[in-house]
Write a structure and sequence with these properties.
Residues 304-316 have a biased composition (Low complexity). The chain is of the alpha+beta class and 328 residues long. It contains 8 helices and 13 strands. The longest helix has 24 residues, at 204-227. It starts with a helix and ends in a 22-residue tail after the last helix.
């Protein structure tokens, strides 16, 4: 079935997700520091950030989920861009962060749950540190959250070596909606994040499982690349195909997928996500027909290739989750 037929078949449900909801507008840490912006999400237009644990657990997206207009969120790339643009707020142990969320609709309403990944992008779906959240009712459509950083905060992520990723999301059935933002810790000694000093997060068992997942999803990724109008649409088309292949895109989720596809056609975005780390190595091996990688020897080789590629538990922000094969 062509992409347009799939879109039309669920078009009546689009109204539920046609507009942004639950979008993080800003996150303000230490007084006088800059405010952080939500990773990848556009605060104007019909964008939103969906953080669905099933999508994360089935390897469709990273721990920050996806946006409707650009697909999977490459946490590492987005964090580095924000560091360069000086849009990462400062925090200290036990400090607070004021988060502003644009509710828009009932789907964007709270309560919101927030957590923190001290490595930036290595905790997957549920390994983050829970944060204490105080939530104020929406005033003029904006929800105000006050997050308290852990008293033993130790951010070690990104090239700076002192960055954490904060994630907030609600429980809306059409989402959940929310988003992620980076914070930079000022009262710590930055971690020296270099390829030679980072311990790979992968185990033999993990690599073997990842290869199997990549091989299973390769067909959907190749199909989305073939059908995408251009490279900009590949990211959102890939999400659509992967969700359909995993059996996740039903009901409200299907409407969100179709909405992302139709919106991306009219929006310029850096949509094609970049497969990095061990998953990229494994997926590339699968794409080249290297079936021997599923053996212990092949998986070990993939693990060796992953070293220095920034697929680490500490600080590199490019965990295997959600990495796929994309072709221009």
């Amino acid at each position: 079935m062509s992409s347009i037929v799939r879109i039309l078949s669920i078009a009546p449900a689009l109204l539920a997700v046609a507009h942004a909801q639950g979008v993080i507008l800003s996150a303000q840490g230490t007084k006088g520091s800059v405010a952080s912006l939500g990773l990848q999400v556009q605060t104007t237009g019909n964008d939103a950030n969906i953080i669905n644990l099933q999508e994360i657990n089935t390897n469709v997206v990273n721990e920050c989920g996806r946006t409707l207009l650009a697909g999977n969120i490459d946490i590492g790339e987005n964090t580095e861009n924000q560091l360069l643009n000086k849009t990462v707020t400062s925090v200290t142990k036990g400090s607070t962060v004021a988060v502003s969320i644009d509710q828009v609709s009932a789907d964007g309403a709270g309560p919101y749950t927030c957590d923190l990944d001290p490595t930036g992008n290595a905790e997957g779906a549920t390994g983050q540190i829970p944060l204490n959240v105080t939530e104020n009712d929406a005033a003029s459509g904006k929800i105000a959250l006050t997050l308290t950083m852990p008293s033993d905060l130790a951010c070690i992520g990104a090239s700076a070596g002192n960055v954490c990723t904060v994630r907030c999301f609600n429980s809306a059935a059409a989402g959940p909606f929310g988003g992620c933002f980076a914070v930079q810790q000022s009262d710590t000694t930055p971690s020296a994040n270099q390829a030679a000093t980072i311990t790979t997060a992968q185990t033999l068992e993990g690599i073997t499982a990842q290869i199997a997942s990549n091989q299973k999803d390769l067909g959907a990724a190749l199909k989305s690349n073939a059908e995408a109008a251009d490279t900009t649409a590949q990211g959102t088309d890939a999400i659509k195909e992967l969700l359909l292949s995993e059996g996740i895109a039903t009901g409200a989720s299907a409407a969100a997928v179709a909405s992302s596809t139709t919106s991306s056609a009219a929006t310029k975005s850096t949509a094609a996500k970049k497969g990095k780390g061990a998953a990229a190595a494994a997926a590339a091996a699968a794409a080249k027909g290297a079936t021997g990688a599923t053996t212990a020897k092949g998986a070990a080789a993939a693990a060796e290739n992953a070293k220095g590629n920034a697929a680490a538990t500490k600080g590199n922000n490019n965990r295997r989750r959600g990495a796929r094969v994309f072709m221009a």
